[in-house]
């Protein structure tokens, strides 16, 4: 009896596993074709500088329009696969090229100058040719390196300190800015903050989420802001969703915010519209902050 049950259970699991493997392989096959089929696109999420109330930057965020259809697959469902398969290298290069070209176009159109943030994954970061690739893209587009920020995560820095230091130095020497994304969630020691040339810390959304209810989250945010200030780094708060959170964070001296409360990630045309509507002639004010999009 037990043996029979065991066997059935086993069959059940294999069938389920089989389906999962199939689904995964199917996704992988589709992702391999996605670049040449032009199925990737970028959305851009505005970053607002609190002192001026202006949109001073955008973060490029990858989207996949699977089979060219209407539905955008969320990054958490396909970026891990891109990373495991190494596809993130060519796709990441496409992201850089596309985002830089777009930012340059906005510059030429006379929109307020924007800092462009692009996410870089570990596989991409440790490619020997990354600085050279970036150099070429910046040069071809006539975009200044000082306007580019690379967002890396603490997990990248866990892997190899020697190599990451020289890599970051090279990028820094090119005039590129470095931000630590999802700061405070990476289980890494803080020692790297002393050794590595880092310009900006992005406070992870988990702390922002809890800060108005949980004094511990509030304490962590205050400590991160203080830490950054003392180390001469800027701070961006991610995932600001409410007026209360915005108020809380701005009182504590955080420089920049990014979150649904200010704006969701938008297609390029949406960014243009937003900038033109809210900052005609380059005018200031965060008065539009209360407007959800
Ligand atoms: P991330 O770099 O930390 O990007 C911020 C994520 O938080 C984005 O999710 C954004 O839509 C979301 N977000 C922003 N404000 C809010 C808010 O107020 N509330 C909530 N709930 N979420 C908010 P998204 O676009 O789904 O991207 C998820 C992650 O995928 C990114 O996290 C990044 O790690 C990765 N990713 C996205 N694009 C790229 C890319 O081009 N290259 C690489 N390597 N990774 C990317
Ligand atoms: Mg990011
Ligand atoms: Mg983040
Ligand atoms: Mg993230």
Automatic annotation (TrEMBL):
Organism this protein belongs to: Geoalkalibacter halelectricus
Domain of life, source organism: Bacteria
Protein name in the entry: EAL domain-containing protein
Domain EAL: 24-279
């Amino acid at each position: 009896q037990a043996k029979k049950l065991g066997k059935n259970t086993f069959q059940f699991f294999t069938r389920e596993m089989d389906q999962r493997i199939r689904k995964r392989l199917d996704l992988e096959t589709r992702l391999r074709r996605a670049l040449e089929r032009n199925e990737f696109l970028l959305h851009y999420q505005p970053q607002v500088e609190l002192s001026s109330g202006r949109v001073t930057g955008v973060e490029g965020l990858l989207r996949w329009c699977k089979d060219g259809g209407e539905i955008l697959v969320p990054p958490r469902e396909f970026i891990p696969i891109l990373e495991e398969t190494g596809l993130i290298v060519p796709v990441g290069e496409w992201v850089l090229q596309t985002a830089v070209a777009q930012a340059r176009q906005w510059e030429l159109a006379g929109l307020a100058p924007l800092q462009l943030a692009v996410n870089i994954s570990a596989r991409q970061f440790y490619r020997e040719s990354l600085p050279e690739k970036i150099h070429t893209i910046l040069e071809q587009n006539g975009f200044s390196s000082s306007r580019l920020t690379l967002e890396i995560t603490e997990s990248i820095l866990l892997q190899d300190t020697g190599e990451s230091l020289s890599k970051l130095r090279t990028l820094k020497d090119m005039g590129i800015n470095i931000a630590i994304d999802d700061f405070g969630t990476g289980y890494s020691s803080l020692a790297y903050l002393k050794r590595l040339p880092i310009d900006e810390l992005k406070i992870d959304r988990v702390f922002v989420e809890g800060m108005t209810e949980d004094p511990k989250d509030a304490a962590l945010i205050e400590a991160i802001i203080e830490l950054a200030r003392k180390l001469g780094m800027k701070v961006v708060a991610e995932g600001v969703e409410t007026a209360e959170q915005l108020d809380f964070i701005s009182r504590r001296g955080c420089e920049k915010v990014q979150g649904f409360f200010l704006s969701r990630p938008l297609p390029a045309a949406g960014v243009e519209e937003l900038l033109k509507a809210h900052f005609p002639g380059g005018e200031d004010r965060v008065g539009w902050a209360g407007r959800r999009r």
